[in-house]
Every structure is written in structure tokens, then in C-alpha cells.
Amino acid sequence: MMDTQKIRKDFPQLKRRINGKPITYLDSTATSLKPTQVLAKMNEYYTKYTANIFRGIYKTSEEATAEYEAARAKVAAFIGANKPEEIVFTRNTSESVNLVAYSWGKGNLRSGDQVAVTIMEHHSNFVPWQQLAGEKSLGFRVWGVDKDGTLNLKELDTLITRKTKLLAITAVSNVIGTINPIKEIVRRVKKLNPKCIVLVDGAQAVPHMRVDVAHWGADFVAFSSHKMLGPTGVGVLWGRMELLEAMPPFIYGGDMIKEVHRDTTVYNSVPHKFEAGTPHIAGVIGLGAAVDYLSVFGMDNVRSHEKEITEYALEKLAGVSGLQIIGPNDPEVRGGVLAFVMKGIHPHDIAQILDEDNVCIRVGFHCAQPLHEYLAVGPTARASFYVYTTKEEIDALVAGLGKVKKMLG
Amino acid sequence: MRSWPDLVKSKRCWADMDMYRDIILDHYKHPRNFGTLSSADAKASEYNATCGDRISIEIQCQMINAKCQIKDIRFSGEGCAISVASASMLTEKVKGMKVENVLKLATEDILVMLGTELTPSRTKCAVLPLEVLQKAVVCLGL
């Protein structure tokens, strides 16, 4: 059980009042709020041991390096990676996916090969593959969803062929919340084509449930710090060591080299080969603190809390006439994100009227326009939940939707 | 036409929701000049991919004293209350206007027409119909 009221005290933004009213933050899928523990840890770097990492032969630099690498070890343990070196720090999930598309894609994809994605991908795990397919004349295959917003695993039999070099798939939809059975999908993909690489977008999974990359059996997993209580500007790419070692660098520059001569360069080892230039040191250390913070609860408890809130929200929103939930209705296969539409009312107007009472939701296509087109629903409104979300906040949302209907219905 | 201060002082349907003033809600719920023309001289449409608003405008023109004027206008599409109300009010505003003046209209004119302050993201919704109309005028190739 999680003590939400106690947790809320850790988040300074929840104490803020705008026009005398509290903030009901229901947009954690876009980015999460940050606890004081994370902010304090980042501030510590900026006030106690600001120094560049790796090269300094003095105490504060050694301290900064140790904290930076400790964060890598924490992230590795958090997702069940074999070793810290399998964790590459990037700027965000998009950059992590692009790293694979450019670096792994460069050496491994040739004209005539196929790459596959699902229709529920965030643009960050869709556009890189769509564009690479165009550039390299690859087949670009898209796995659709059933009416209930879930994937039909039988379709893998036709989706994955011996020409399929990669499947890019999200673990949890950032719109309809569908939790995909990654372990089973990877098992089937590898059976159909052992050489097919599976890249999992974990941006909506790692912050909200227990993720074990070894259990999944995938080859790459990408996610972002800022969606899991950490700062913006830090992303993670986990990859299997033998894959990372075989891949060329994505960005050239400082830190990623071992030796540089007039005409040749020897690259640094993994993961440093992929971390050119001074990284977001404070951000990475902050992510480490976010991992510590979440680890105190245990990710199974985080998931339980969100499932309870989602169940409550599904029930309450079902009582709003003219409101339609998009995606699975079963909280067992749905993460804490609810997209919905209201008959005859544009989502922008919903969000605008809710904002009068500081109820923050997101509207539009949520960086998943192909999914909206596929489902033929137009733009949607989306409420999403996290460790600090309460049932009272769901009630505030429902009350706000009542106002929306009164005004525009 | 009412002046800006009058508009600001006008009755509001929601205590602190300037954005959804009566006149905007009225145009949203009962859009004027909605539909298509049987014979249009020019048409244009625009799509706002961030919010899914889609507005099309058709115009019919006439020459008066060697100046081209908007004789009739229709709009269609779907959007939020702000973009629909803006389109509806704009069609009324420009009927009979010289096209050269239509091209001079700017964001400020739209905000004055709506009589409300908008956040930057909603300003895009409000200005979309003007962009479509100006695109249609350019299509006339005058």
C-alpha cells in the first residue's frame, strides 16, 4: 500500500495554488512532477561537487564521476540489466531510438529488408523507422490494433518474415494505455525469426511497473528520466552488450574517444562510445535519485496504486454521459492513462475549461497521430496518473467535465 | 461595430471565463455562413495537426469600382469553439470587404473581433480561419 498523502508532501508543485486553487495534475504521461529528494540531489551536484566527470584529478571531479556512474548502476539494477555498462545515457527516449536507428540501422539494414512497428507507437518510435525505411528502401510494416485497442498476437505470424530485421514496439501505449505482453511478443518474434531485433519503447512502462529487461528478452529498451520523477534532458538506452559493442558511434566528440591521431581515432568502450561531449551530469544524478525514490515503494506497489486509480477513473468517467473512453476497459491490461472524447465537444475546449480549476490534462494527438487516424477518433483528451494521484483528483476531473457539458454540451 | 472596451465589458456566461463569452458560444453553437457555395471563385483549407482542427473556406467575389470584393463566403470543417467561432465571425466581418483589405487583416484584428484574450496555443486556433481565407484570396490570383 502506498501512502499517497505522505507522498504528495514530497512534491513542492502540489503545494502551489493558482488563483487560490490547488493544481490537479493529470498529465504525468507527458512528464511527471519532481520530488524534493531528486531536486536536492541535483542541487548537491551544483553546490558541492560541480566538476566535469572522468578527467579531473581532484576530489570533486572524482566525486562527480562516482555519483554519475553510481546512477548508471542504479538504473541498470532497476531494470534488471546484466551490467551498468549496458546503460547509455542520452537526452530522451527519442534520442535513444534515434541512436539505434542511426547506429545499428547503418550497419545492419539494407535495401529489401523490413522493419516493423505497431500503430500505437509514439512518433518517437515511429518516425525514425518510417524515415529510415524511405531512405534505405526498406519495407515498412505496421501492426494494427483490434477494436479494443490491443494487439492480436496471431498477426505476428504474417508480420514477421525472414526479411524482418527489427520490430519497434511500445510496452505501454501513451494514449490508450494498452499494456502489451512484451515477453510473449519477443518469444514469438524470436521463434519466427531469431535474427529479428526487438526494440521496446519503455517510456510509459519503466516509470509505472516492474520492468526486467532479461525477463522481456528484448534487445534494446529506451526510456526517459522526466517521466519517472527525474529531470528533463536525460534519456536511457539499454542494449544487449554484444549489440552495443558492434555498433558504430552515433555522435562524435569528447569522451567517446580513447585515442585521437591526425588521421585516425580509436573509440572509447561501451557505454562511453555513445556519450559524446559533457553529458547532463546533474540530470543523470537526479535520475539516480528518482530510481532510489521509486525503489522505496517497489514498482509492484506503484503499479497497484495506479491500477486502483485507473479502475476508479474508468468507473467515474463511464458515468459521464456522452463520454467515450478510447482503448481497453480492463485495468489489468491498461496503464494509468485514459484517453477519451466527448460527443460534440472539441478536446481543446475540454482542457481549457478544466484549466479554469487548474485541472491539467492533455489534448490532441499525443504524438501518436497514426493511432488516432487508424482508430478514426480525431483528437482526444487524455488524463494520466502517477504515484501522487488521488481519487479526489479524479472527482475534480469529473466535476470539471460537468462544467464543460454545462457550458458547451 | 462594438468597440474593444464594450466587448470586454459585455456580459459573460462564466464568471472568469472570458474565452467562452456568450458571443463566442453563440457563434460556435450556431455558426454563420456554414457550408459551401454553389459556385466559388476560390477555396482553401488548412489543417492544424497539433489539435486536429480542419477549416475550409470558399469565396465568391465581385468587382465594384474596379476593386475586387468578397460577395459571398462559406466555411466548413471542424474545430474547437475558438476556431469555429472565429471562422463564423470572420465570414460576417469580411462580407463586402475589398480583398486587398482582407489580406491586411492580422492576428490583432482577430483578437479584437473575438473580444477576448487568448493564450498562445489558443491564438493559433483563432487565427487558423484567417490563414485559410487569405490563402483563398491569394488563390484568386489577382
Task: Give a structural overview.
The complex is a heterodimer of chains A (409) and B (142). With 409 residues, chain A is an alpha/beta fold. Chain A has two domains: 4-30 and 298-408, Alpha-Beta Complex (Aspartate Aminotransferase, domain 1), CATH 3.90.1150; 40-295, Type I PLP-dependent aspartate aminotransferase-like (Major domain) (Aspartate Aminotransferase, domain 2), CATH 3.40.640. In chain A, 39% of the residues lie in helices and 17% in strands. Chain A has a seven-stranded mixed β-sheet, sandwiched between helices. In chain A, helix 3 (59-78) packs across helix 10 (281-297) and helix 12 (347-355) packs across helix 14 (391-408). Chain A starts with a helix and ends with a helix. The mean pLDDT of chain A is 96. Chain B has a single domain, classed as Sufe protein. Chain: A, CATH 3.90.1010. Chain B has helices spanning 4-9, 22-29, 81-94, 99-102, 107-114, 120-139; strands at residues 42-48, 53-64, 67-78. Chain B has a three-stranded antiparallel β-sheet with strand order 1-2-3. In chain B, helix 2 crosses helix 3. Chain B is globular, with a radius of gyration of 15 Å. The two termini of chain B are 29 Å apart. Residues 1-16 of chain B have low confidence and may be disordered. Chains A and B meet through helix 12 of A and loops of B. Chain B: It comes from Candidatus Gottesmanbacteria bacterium GW2011_GWA2_47_9. Chain B: This is SUF system FeS assembly protein, NifU family. Chain B: Residues 19-138 form the NIF system FeS cluster assembly NifU N-terminal domain.
